[in-house]
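Translate sequence into structure tokens.
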Amino acid sequence: EDGGAHRLERDALGFGITYTNPEGREVYTTQAQQVPKEILGQLAKPPRQPDEASSDRDQARGFFGTWKIGSGPDVFHVFVEPDRSAASTWGAGPQGARGLRGSWAKQGSELHIAWDTGHYSIFRENERGFAYKRIAPGEVIETDRSEFAAAMRVDADTVPASWLADYREESDVR
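Result follows.
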């Protein structure tokens, strides 16, 4: 493509591949090994892209929807959308403040959400249902010792009406 060339040569350790740039200068040489003929065809198989691309989203289906987190006066809601977006009423005030917006990714059996404020959340399925925790900006996820709170799937109608109206309007714009 750029006019450079690769040269494969046998050396004392096996093979060496040398790249020469378009000006004819050798840029690097690196060691290479011959691929055993028994597995050569396996390496040439194309990846199953459609399966891999959809599997992450398909596996996350159990997390899609509206969630009520916690109990008592500290209750808030989290929306997990199939388009990889997420929203939360956490931090929203009585005047209909925006709350959090973020995007999710499936990490093993958990759903992780990175929020626009720098917070980070984890949904986890456990023996009693689902659990959720939010990690403060700057905290190391692996060393965070905060407890998971109960998470329960609910109808969107249980979310404060003014916040829900603003969120739906915002979603329509996207």
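Note: Residues 161-173 form the longest helix (13 residues).
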